[in-house]
Amino acid sequence: MAAVARIVRDRGSVRYALPPHVTQEIVEHPQAVAVPGANRHALGLMAWQGTRLPLIDVAVRLGACAPRSGAPRYALVVAVQPAPGAPIEHAAIALDALPETVAVDDAAACEIPASDAWHSVAISCFLHDGVPVPIVDTAKVVITA
Question: Which of 38, 52, 65, 124 could bond 59 through an S-S bridge, CB–CB 3.0 to 4.6 Å?
Answer without folding.
Answer: 65
